Task: inverse folding
């Protein structure tokens, strides 16, 4: 294995010893085999890789030997900071101790690892704020069909959010939460996956479902909780779930999906499936115990999960400065032995590339990956929130206008000659019409019948439930006015 | 403890098949393969073994009959702190029987994920006293997984096993009976066996039941309870209470280790001419109201006993239900002989516990009301 970077002979020796013992700790190895399929930064020109179909990367033969365990992302600046702590000029052969967990070098210098690196972990981006490709970058090329679908889905998500938000304001649905500002995250990450990859969302990722083909009508049905809602009207709006799209039903408690993701991924591993799990979480959710549980389990079980953290700066009104004192989320990966990357969450191409790469690693190496996407929550937390109460209008406006992920990607797509002003107008009008239509239909559709209150608590109704249903029906017949008329009894 | 024999039933080889995306698995229902406990069959091979060995047998059978059954938890690999998982890792391999990190919320969350993919996830929580970090996953996730998804998804393959109850020297954190917390959660089942023979059959039913189940094992009985246990694969029905001692003057209801204490009280009461009917509830939710009600209609008196503190204990639910159903038949108030409203104490354990004499005194008071 090539070691491209050496600071001293002793570092190299130490690294070699660590490698031989299968210990991943102290080494930094810059050779990343996956980057051979990407455009390498060592090339001065951008050499586009021919784009055949969305799965070409997945068909490349991977050499397992080449993917030996110490692969690293290209970004190593922060690592150098940390590893300088470990450097020394002494011969380490008889300065090592044996303990459970392996050999460690000892030192008589008392040094605390600093609470943070001098420099923050850099953020991977492909497009600049004007939607221009940054020269010399690594990224996975996206062809016209995928790019156009990505862009139009981002537009659809934007419009869907606006219209459903308004519908809640008009009292037509009880609740809604938008993905405004984070459209690139859900659409681009979904685009980099296959339909066999299983999604465990938090709640701000309906774009993933949209990408996979969930219709506007299906979204509306769930928000109205009508008879066509797959969830049978049991949960609040936006708690989508779709078995046919491998999208596990959303639940309100934060981060509970993370250890479940490890379990699902373990099942895929047992099946030898060429698929992974992608579980989403926000910045706030990483403070939950289930974040720790989920990452630790996934690492120990060597489960193919991608933990995707949308760090949008806010957990309702709690700014990230009140959420953690670490350098965001990306640095936490190492605490669990999980490979991690920080990406620009408003850069659709960066997300697409990072998730593609993460997926390959997760599946081929059977390991967990952590992606932190930096972004900004432009909208309020939900329709129950007014974020102007705790943050500046200027700030919101800046992110909405100057750092808009949809506009940014549009520029790139347009510059490739794949999108026009006319298409923009057509698509926006068409989506708007479809949404208004979907809402009308959903609103008029009956609610699920009363039996659906009692079914699915267990695989079949138990005697106490049968008894309660009987009593309830008697009560309803005595006091019909107490009950909504759109639920048939 | 009453000796139990069972009829031989056909060995049911339950091999899961995967359909479609691999979500569905055919689960056997617990009402199949019901063991007829009252008829002995000379052809049945039964050995006298203790509770942890019976549990161990059930786990061996569960893994043998379903290649997608998994056993995991803290320390299960070497056999577990109570030896319930002995031999499993050697026989079925480290990918199916494995240690987890020390994290109950992770164990249950991971188990939910495994079960959601159609596997049988048998999770061990080392002591019921430590189940609380997993309470969110159990209540908010496992119990609601099927309902909230409109039955698109379910985690019915999840079984959570935990040793519970007094052990003589366990103190606050090795003696708890937390069943009442879980009995308040629609969507899960709570099952507690009283003996080795019951444990094996009930555990296999729990594992194969298409709903998430919490199975509390009376740790006091792991070594102490020895009984004839058929060697083959058999299941006992869930949500069916059992009259384990017939009587006519008073109905006693209990579960787990407490039943043996109650039985001694019944034997003593008999010497004073009081005929006691003793019922093992077995499944706490959904519980078999019919059997208890039928007994109370016969006797007119009921006494419930459990180790857990009396206030808010599951005895309160049984009492309220029986009063609703049998008020005019009752000859005396429903009695409860339970643990005190204190944390489970160490040196004071003998004072805390619902002892035979406390039960006997209450039987007499109820009969003489």
Result:
């Amino acid at each position: 294995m090539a070691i491209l970077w050496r600071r001293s002979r002793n570092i190299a020796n130490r690294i070699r010893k660590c490698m031989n013992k299968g210990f991943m700790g102290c080494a930094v190895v810059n050779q990343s085999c996956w980057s051979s399929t990407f455009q390498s930064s060592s090339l001065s020109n951008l050499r586009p890789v021919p784009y055949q179909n969305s799965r070409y990367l997945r068909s490349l033969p991977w050499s397992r030997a080449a993917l030996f365990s110490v692969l690293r992302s290209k970004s190593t600046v922060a690592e150098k900071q940390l590893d300088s702590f470990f450097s020394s000029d002494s011969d380490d052969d008889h300065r090592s101790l044996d303990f459970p967990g392996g050999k460690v070098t000892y030192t008589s210098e008392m040094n605390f690892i600093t609470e943070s690196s001098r420099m923050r972990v850099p953020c991977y981006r492909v497009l600049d704020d004007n939607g221009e490709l940054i020269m010399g970058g690594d990224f996975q090329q996206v062809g016209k069909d995928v790019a156009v679908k990505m862009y139009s889905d981002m537009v659809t998500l934007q419009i869907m959010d606006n219209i459903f938000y308004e519908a809640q304001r008009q009292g037509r649905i009880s609740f809604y939460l938008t993905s405004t500002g984070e459209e690139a995250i859900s659409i681009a990450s979904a685009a980099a996956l296959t339909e066999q990859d299983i999604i465990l969302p938090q709640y701000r990722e309906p774009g993933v479902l949209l990408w996979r083909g969930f219709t506007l009508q299906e979204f509306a049905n769930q928000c109205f909780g009508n008879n066509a809602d797959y969830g049978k009207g049991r949960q609040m709006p936006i708690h989508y779930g779709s078995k046919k799209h491998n999208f596990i039903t959303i639940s309100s408690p934060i981060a509970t999906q993370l250890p479940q993701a490890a379990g699902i991924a373990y099942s895929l591993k047992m099946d030898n499936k060429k698929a992974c799990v992608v579980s989403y979480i926000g910045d706030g959710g990483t403070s939950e115990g289930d974040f720790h549980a989920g990452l630790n389990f996934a690492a120990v079980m060597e489960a193919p999960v991608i933990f995707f953290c949308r760090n949008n700066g806010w957990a309702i009104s709690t700014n990230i400065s009140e959420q953690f004192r670490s350098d965001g989320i990306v640095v936490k990966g190492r605490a669990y032995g999980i490979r991690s990357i920080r990406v620009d969450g408003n850069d659709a191409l960066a997300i697409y590339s990072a998730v593609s790469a993460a997926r390959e690693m997760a599946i081929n190496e059977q390991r967990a990956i952590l992606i932190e996407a930096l972004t900004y929550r432009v909208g309020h937390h939900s329709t129950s929130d007014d974020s102007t109460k705790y943050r500046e209008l200027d700030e919101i406006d800046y992110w909405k206008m100057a750092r808009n992920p949809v506009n940014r990607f549009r520029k790139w797509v347009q510059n490739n000659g794949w999108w026009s002003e006319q298409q923009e107008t057509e698509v926006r009008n068409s989506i708007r019409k479809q949404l208004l239509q979907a809402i009308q239909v959903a609103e008029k559709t009956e609610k699920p019948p009363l039996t659906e209150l009692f079914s699915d608590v267990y695989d079949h109704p138990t005697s106490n439930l049968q008894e309660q249903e009987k009593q309830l029906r008697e009560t309803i017949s005595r006091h019909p006015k107490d009950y909504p008329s759109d639920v048939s009894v | 403890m009453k000796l139990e024999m069972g009829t031989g039933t056909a060995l049911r080889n339950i091999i899961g098949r995967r359909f479609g995306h691999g979500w569905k698995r055919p689960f056997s229902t617990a009402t199949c393969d019901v063991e007829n406990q009252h008829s002995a069959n000379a052809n049945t091979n039964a050995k006298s073994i203790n509770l942890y060995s019976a549990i161990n047998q059930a786990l061996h059978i569960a893994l043998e009959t379903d290649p997608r059954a998994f056993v995991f938890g803290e320390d299960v690999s070497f056999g577990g702190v109570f030896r319930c998982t002995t031999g499993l890792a050697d026989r079925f391999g480290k990918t199916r029987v494995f240690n987890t990190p020390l994290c109950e919320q992770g164990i249950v969350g991971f188990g939910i994920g495994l079960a959601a993919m159609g596997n049988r996830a048998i999770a061990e929580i080392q002591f019921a006293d430590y189940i609380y970090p997993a309470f969110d996953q159990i209540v908010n996730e496992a119990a609601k997984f099927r309902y909230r998804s409109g039955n698109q998804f379910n985690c019915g393959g999840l079984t959570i096993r935990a040793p519970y109850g007094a052990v003589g020297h366990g103190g606050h954190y090795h003696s708890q009976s937390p069943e009442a917390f879980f009995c308040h959660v629609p969507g899960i089942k709570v099952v507690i066996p009283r003996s080795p023979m019951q444990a094996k059959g009930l555990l296999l039913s729990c594992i194969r039941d298409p709903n998430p189940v919490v199975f509390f094992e009376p740790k006091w009985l792991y070594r102490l309870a020895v009984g004839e246990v058929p060697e083959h694969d058999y299941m006992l029905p869930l949500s069916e209470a059992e009259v384990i001692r017939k009587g006519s003057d008073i109905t006693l209801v209990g579960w787990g280790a407490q039943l043996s204490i109650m039985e001694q009280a019944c034997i003593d009461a008999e010497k004073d001419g009081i005929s006691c009917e003793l019922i093992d509830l077995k499944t706490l939710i959904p519980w078999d109201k019919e059997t208890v009600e039928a007994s109370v209609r016969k006797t007119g008196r009921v006494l419930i006993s459990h180790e857990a503190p009396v206030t808010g204990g599951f005895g309160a639910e049984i009492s309220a239900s029986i009063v609703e159903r049998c008020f005019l038949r009752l000859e005396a108030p429903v009695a409860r002989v339970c643990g005190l409203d204190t944390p489970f104490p160490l040196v004071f354990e003998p004072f805390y516990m619902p002892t035979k004499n406390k039960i006997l005194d209450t039987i007499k008071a109820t009969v003489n009301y």
